[in-house]
Write a structure and sequence with these properties.
Butyryl-CoA Dehydrogenase, subunit A, domain 3, 3 domains, two-stranded antiparallel sheet, 58% helix
């Protein structure tokens, strides 16, 4: 069984060259932060993940979370891990300083979160939901609720959840039936929610549920939804815990993967109504919840990065040890010398680094949007983050499923056997394209809201940047790798631009035709942007090599990975353009009776 080792050099290289780490450290809010400190943080996180979280990943998967009469027990070792995790300040690292957090930039916290997700994605989900709840409360709750709930949540003594889905509604949030009736300063919440990650557990002393519900006078549909804070235990005025609230975990799901992460069915108000507090204004619940949802979507995309890295490391370790047949490539004489196995390993690594670059690029833009000194830079960065959010979520998770599947294939028959450990990464990755909005939902958001609704302004601004870089790289003489990469990038950018034009021409009159090709458009967008970022990494690495850097073995791999991605993935851009345009004919070819 392989041992996870965080790829700190790869992460730092992407943070510097793609995320803009130096400029983010120089922003006023982070002027006490240095790149050397960031490196120290990543190295310490890598040690903690290898020593504490990674050893619990396999055992947690095998044992799983257990439900008994409304209570949930986490796998052996998880409670001690959460205690040390919070005691060491890891839970508080991304949170605002005013509530006891460390307030580190999004780019830095993103890299650290990737480490947790690689080492133990089920464990990391508890922190992810808590951080998202902190974001929503910080942005939308009253000052009194912030003071009462945020410090213990940041500290990790209390955790948070997001309660959207109901049995009859699924992804259609407009169809929820949970009710909230005002009673003094409280509201009485009644209803049922499903698929609530970490909705019940034994790690923390209290769980803060953010719940979507309808007020008695609420208009129909999504415009009639409000957001409420319902703690598992009520909180006294002095911050101590009071009586148990009227809410209960009625069951946890038996899932394909992430077994150690309890996915709860929650009942609110079976004995009169759970007491809750209104967050934000009445009927503005979805606007408030989107703060948490967008945080979750980006971090689920990051789960794709983390699981890709872990699946790759596991497959690489096996391939470098397994002796079978006569290899055709030089090396250790293991299956890593078989061309097809080498093809899969290189592809896994190239796609993983592409997904990481995409996630870090978005994280860096989030920091620019939050605190850059120039107002236009902040505005442009915010528009780019909005565009990238569904792409990071959808594309990085689809990549994770492909990479984890290749990881099983590298193992051959042993990959299909649970004892090898390879199957867990695919089982864990499979949910990432579903929860927090399926790939289809992300694609519809990208095409409808982020491209058609704004007339393509944000994506065409990005296309302009990518096209300029492709042209500039093409002018660099004497480097055959950059010549091939720049040509493939230029062609791919043209395919994306043509696809955007098609969407803008057809979205108003033929929305169903555009929706049929939405997932292909998301795949196209993610592939082209990732190819562009790969090219930037390659150029930066070659510049350091030409400057006589001593780290040539590490640096020389970057242009080769960019070349692989360009010739194996970017070349699919024109095909994705065509499948997007022609998807409607395939979708409409059979009637419902013929399916």
């Amino acid at each position: 069984m392989s041992v996870y080792a965080a790829p700190v050099r790869d992460m730092l290289f992407a943070m510097h060259e793609i995320g803009g780490l130096e400029s983010i450290c120089s922003q006023l809010e982070h002027e006490d932060l240095s790149t050397s400190l960031v490196e120290a943080v990543l190295n310490e996180a890598a040690r903690y993940a290898a020593d504490v979280l990674d050893p619990l990943n396999r055992s947690g998967d095998a044992e799983g979370a257990c439900w008994h009469t409304g209570e949930v027990t986490t796998p052996h070792g998880f409670r001690d891990a959460w205690k040390s995790f919070t005691a060491n300040g890891w839970n508080a690292m991304p949170a605002p300083k005013v509530w006891g957090g460390q307030g580190l930039p999004v780019l830095v916290s993103t890299a650290v979160l990737e480490i947790w997700k690689s080492a133990n994605v089920a464990f990391s989900l508890c922190q992810m939901l808590t951080l998202g709840a902190i974001e929503a409360i910080q942005h939308h709750a009253s000052e009194g609720l912030k003071r009462r709930f945020l410090p213990p949540m940041v500290e990790g003594r209390w955790t948070g959840t997001m309660n959207l889905t109901e049995p009859q509604a699924g992804s259609d949030v407009a169809a929820i039936r949970t009710r909230a009736v005002p009673e003094g300063e409280f509201y009485r919440i009644t209803g049922n929610k499903i698929f609530i990650s970490w909705g019940e557990h034994d790690l923390a002393e209290n769980i803060v549920h953010l719940v979507l519900a309808r007020l008695p006078d609420a208009p129909a549909g999504i415009k009639g939804i409000s957001l409420f804070l319902c703690p598992k235990f009520l909180v006294n005025g002095d911050g101590s815990l009071g009586a148990r609230n009227d809410l209960a975990c009625t069951a946890i799901e038996h899932k394909m993967g992430i077994h150690a992460s309890p996915t709860a069915s929650m009942a609110f108000g079976d004995s009169g109504g759970a007491l809750g507090y209104l967050i934000g204004e009445p009927h503005q619940g979805m606007a408030c919840m989107f703060t948490m949802m967008n945080h979750a979507r980006l971090n689920v995309g990051l789960e794709g990065v983390g699981l890709s890295e872990r699946a790759y490391q596991h497959a690489r370790s096996y391939a470098l040890q397994r002796v079978q047949g006569t290899p055709l490539l030089p090396g250790r004489g293991t299956i890593a010398g078989h061309p097809d196995v080498r093809r899969m390993l290189v592809g896994m690594k190239a796609r993983t680094e592409a997904a990481r670059a995409l996630a870090y690029f978005c994280a860096g833009q989030m920091d620019r949007a939050a605190s850059h000194s120039d107002l236009k830079e902040r505005s442009d960065a915010a528009a780019l983050v909005a565009l990238l959010t569904p792409i990071v979520k959808g594309w990085c998770t689809e990549i994770a499923n492909a990479v984890a599947s290749d990881g099983i294939q590298v193992h051959g028959g042993m990959g299909y056997v649970e004892e090898s450990g390879a199957a867990q990464y695919l089982r864990d990755a499979r949910i990432t394209t579903i929860y927090e909005g399926t790939t289809g939902i992300q694609a519809n958001d990208l095409l409808g809201r982020k491209v058609a609704r704004d007339g393509g302004r944000a994506i065409r601004a990005l296309i302009g940047r990518m096209r300029a870089d492709a042209a500039r790289l093409h002018e660099i003489k004497g480097d055959p790798t950059l010549a091939v990469v720049s040509q493939a990038l230029g062609d791919a950018v043209n395919a994306l631009d043509e696809s955007v034009a098609w969407i803008l021409d057809n979205s108003a009159e033929y929305p169903e035709r555009c929706a049929a090709g939405a997932v292909d458009f998301l795949r196209l967008s993610g592939t082209v942007i990732a190819g562009w970022l790969h090219a930037r990494l390659a150029e930066a690495a070659l510049a350091q090599i030409h400057a006589k850097s001593q780290d040539t073995d590490f640096l020389s791999a970057k242009p080769l990975l960019a070349l692989h991605f360009a010739t194996q993935d970017l070349v699919a851009a024109s095909a994705l353009r065509d499948t997007m345009r022609n998807a409607w004919s395939a979708v409409s070819s059979l009637s419902e009776e013929q399916l």
